[in-house]
Amino acid sequence: MSGGRWPGIALRLFVVLVLQTAALGWMIYSRAELLRNGTEVTLTVVPVDPRDLFRGDFVRLNYAITNLRPGVIGGDSDFLPNDPIWIVLDTSLAGAARPTGVFKHQPPTLPERTAIRGRVQSVYDGPPPIDDPDGCPNPCRTVRVNYGIEQYFVPEGEGRNIENLRNDSRISVVAAVDSDGRAAIKKLLIDGVERYEEPLF
Amino acid sequence: MLDALYRRRLEHDLQVWRERGWVTPEAATAILGTVEVDGRPRTAIIVGFLGAILIAFAAIAFVAANWVDMARPIRLAILVGGMTLCYGTAVFLNRARHPWFADAAVFAGAALFGAAIMLVAQSYHISGDYPDALLMWGAGALFAAVFGPSRAALALSIIVLGLWSWYETFDYDWIIHWPFLIALALIAIVSGAWNWRQGMHLVVLALGTWIAVVAIRLAEHLDWSAAAVACVSMASALAMFAAGRYLTSRTMWPRTGRFGTVLSIYGLFAFLALFILLQLAMREGPSPDYADDRVALIAAVVLAGASTAFLIAACSTVRAIVYDAALPIIVAFAAVGLTWAASTNAGLTDSLALQVLLGILALVAGIWAVANGNRRNSRASATFGLLAFAGEVLYLYFVTFGTLLNTALFFLIGGILLIALAAVLVRLQRRLSPQDPGETHATDAPVELVETGDPS
């Protein structure tokens, strides 16, 4: 197994160590860059099914833009699971950003608009919503999107508290979004007041 | 361990042979010299591994206990420090001529890399697509395995990449997660290059699981009936067996040949097992919907055709084709044909006649596997054949249960047929033997790498 034809084992394992450390460093660096340079977007956090029990020390965050109805918002609608998806957010008003279009490809950049990228997790065609039957024509298509910002790790013991606040709809998140549409959680707001802000490193 | 047992037995046999004057003492020494017991301190390796795992858990628990109070850069430093320690230990152990412990240390480093990815993701709230984290871990483990080199790290990379494919398939709705095949091919090349048998088993197991998952996903997506899924899976198992046989027959590729042996063993097992599953699926009474099942049945025919090509290409003589290839090909095509007939003809679907016809095919397949195992000195093939035969007889007994007269009649006819077959075989053997003395074992498979037991 340990033949002498290769360069020495020390050199080989050093290369492995450097590559693996570089991978970890890249994870952290790319996120720091994202937080530093990304456009800030405020996202409303919606309650999660209360049966989804608190797991470990992270809180699951579902956003108002997690479940989208392309038929209502406009744009493309022929999504399949696993497809990339771009959501154009209107950031012109104070408060939470509003989705103005969903697309299969990266849309051109416009002023006061930020495009966030996600991955389609599932697509569901169902009856129109009861509260607004005309708002979404039958069959009403709902696309569930994963943005990679659905988990927030909190110090041990604080998770339950934040979960309760989440289920009372008192939490919103400020995400940084870069020009490729990638997002990272920058701040956690409770009742619109900054509660946690992420350091870069 | 098996090598040591074999050596002990060989020593005993050589002793007897020397006393009878069949071998000279020099020859005996030379023969013993060919059986190298690799001398790995296996128990020590396992105990060492367990020790490494305990230390790793202790480290993780200690870090987790103090995690919240640490600044994030310090956390990262601890993780990288742990990895450095593992790889440094590997270098040290390798220089101290403990390559197997060095292997364990590289494994620990690769495992810690995975823990580091998870902990960094947690510290920095990077959830991303979590299969991506598994992909990164698997790739890192594969790197460590190749550069180490470390067999344990390679096994780790198969498991982690398998999990990656699993989550991609089920959480992101891939139907055929083909990227996994690229990863698996890389791992297969490494195990082949190392000539590492257990690694080949892992690769083939992973491939088999992947094929099963793909078949189930396709069935869900295209509304196939259970019978169609079983049929197409059976055909792919035969294709796996045939591809393995073909690789084994190419003596100029000795390493892929070893892969071929492993591939054909699992393929044969799956082929025989799926035959019984196919009958069970038929009994479920699939609502025959030819329109939905057509794609599956065409795929089954194509796979059976590919198996035919591989099996025939693996044989060097017409006689070998008759012995080794003809029966499984006929059985597979007949089974696909019966499934096809059942899916277009509602009357046949849940009938006893169909079960009995399929049962006869399964019994023939079992007998062929036993004969094939004896001919080619493959104990696995003979055992699987016997198991399949016994299982099928039991199955038929349950199917025909309630009509005891039918059961009795069926087994009576079956028994007569088997005895007749035995008589024909004996005559055939007698007629063929004089032309080719000593022909009891395969002539077309000079390199049969199956672990052999008694040649009898």
How many domains make up the coordinates of chain A? 1
Question: What's the oligomerization state?
Answer: heterodimer
Please count the helical segments of chain A. 3
Percent of sequence in beta strands of chain A = 35-45%
Class inferred from helices and paired strands of chain B: mainly alpha
**Rg result of chain A:** 21 Å
Cα distance, first to last residue of chain A? Answer: 40 Å
Question: Helicity range of the residues of chain B?
Answer: over 70%
Shape of chain B: globular
Biggest β-sheet of chain A: count, sense, barrel? 5 strands, antiparallel
> How big a fraction of the residues of chain B is strand?
under 5%
Largest sheet of chain B: none
The parts of chain B where pLDDT drops under 50 for at least 5 residues are 435-456
The topology string of helices and strands of chain A comes to HEEEEHEEEEEHEEE
Radius of gyration of chain B: 27 Å
**End-to-end C-alpha gap of chain B:** 24 Å
What would your notes on this structure say?
The complex is a heterodimer of chains A (201) and B (456). Chain A is of the alpha+beta class and 201 residues long. Chain A has one domain (9-197). Chain A has helices at 9-37, 70-73, 159-167, and strands at 39-46, 58-60, 62-63, 67-68, 84-90, 98-103, 113-126, 140-146, 151-153, 171-177, 183-190, 193-197. In chain A, the strands form three sheets. Chain A has a five-stranded antiparallel β-sheet with strand order 3-1-10-11-12. In chain A, strands 4-8-7-5-6 form a five-stranded antiparallel β-sheet. In chain A, strands 2-9 form a two-stranded antiparallel ribbon. In chain A, a hairpin with a 5-residue loop joins strand 10 (171-177) and strand 11 (183-190). The longest helix of chain A is centred in the first third of the chain and has 29 residues, at 9-37. Chain B has a domain at 223-456. Chain B has helices at 2-19, 25-34, 42-65, 72-95, 99-123, 130-147, 151-171, 179-194, 197-222, 226-249, 254-283, 290-314, 318-344, 346-349, 352-376, 379-399, 404-432. In chain B, helix 12 (290-314) packs antiparallel against helix 13 and helix 13 runs antiparallel to helix 15. Chain B is globular and about 80 Å long. The two termini of chain B are 24 Å apart. In chain B, 41% of the residues are buried. The A-B interface holds A 1-2, 9-10, 12-17, 19-21, 23-24, 27-28, 31, 58, 80-82, 119, 121-122, 146, 148-153, 155-156, 184-185, 198-199, 201 and B 68, 72-73, 76, 79-80, 83-84, 87-88, 90-91, 94-95, 99, 102-103, 106, 109, 113, 116-117, 120-129, 136, 140, 143-144, 147-149, 151, 171-174, 194.
